[in-house]
Design a protein that fits this description.
Oligomer: single chain
Strand content: under 5%
Order of helices and strands: HHEHEHHHHHHHHH
Structural class: mainly alpha
Radius of gyration: 17 Å
Shape: globular
Length: 233
């Protein structure tokens, strides 16, 4: 169970990177591979950088730009591609299986992604938006698009104008929370209420960081998430 009353750890406060560093956080992606696997499965082709050639660099800001679009099925597929590509990087483990799962369930997947995206944009409860993509037991509703990638999709679905409430949760972040707030944190399969508590914890830590910095600048919850991801590295 997450201890939501845990105070912000000193080492997290000391390592906060700043909002600009969060937005410029980049991952290398093999766009040629993406074109091949999308084409071979009859999936809509990627737009923007992923439609190019060779290895490209994709930043959080560039994925957020897709989150600013209107939640339609066409746009949801693009946001799906980019959040997945950014999360997987160049190696892109199990990319074939992940896109097989999408190709076999295009209509259902499109509806789920649009519904989740719309809930995020409307400010619905965190557990409700997350529960659209993950079951009550923390399994992905879209095959091979599990809880960690669901949190990435929800995070980027907020776009550039929404102060992030939904933040990324993956096995690295959950493991790095064990010593402070989540002693027995699982590394996969988070329940909707667990994910909501996690987001609430990071929001409170962001508020505490702002106060301890004498409100010299606002701290976003994703600054805390990125710092946790990089912790002990």
């Amino acid at each position: 169970m997450i201890n939501e009353n845990t105070l912000l750890p000193d080492d997290i406060l000391a390592q906060l990177p700043g909002a600009s560093a969060v937005m410029s956080h980049a991952v290398s992606v093999d766009s040629d591979r993406w074109e091949r696997v999308l084409t071979s499965r009859g999936l809509p082709l990627a737009q923007g950088k992923l439609a190019g050639t060779g290895h490209i660099s994709v930043t959080r800001k560039e994925v957020f730009d897709f989150g600013d679009r209107i939640p339609t099925v066409e746009n949801a597929f693009q946001l799906f591609y980019y959040s997945l590509a950014w999360g997987l990087g160049t190696r892109a483990p199990r990319l074939h299986q992940r896109l097989d799962g999408l190709a076999a369930n295009q209509e259902k997947a499109g509806q789920l992604l649009v519904s989740a995206w719309t809930l995020v944009q409307e400010g619905a409860p965190i557990r409700e938006a997350y529960g659209t993509l993950a079951t009550d037991r923390g399994a992905g509703r879209i095959p091979w698009f599990g809880p960690a990638f669901s949190t990435k999709f929800l995070y980027f679905a907020q776009g550039n104008t929404i102060n992030p409430r939904h933040v990324i949760l993956d096995q690295v972040v959950s493991r790095n929370l064990r010593r402070d707030a989540w002693p027995q944190a699982p590394t996969a399969g988070w329940w909707p209420e667990t994910y909501e508590r996690y987001c609430g914890l990071l929001e409170r830590w962001a508020d505490q960081a702002s106060e301890r910095l004498d409100d010299s600048r606002p701290i976003r919850a994703d600054e805390i998430e990125l710092t946790l991801f990089r912790r002990h590295r």
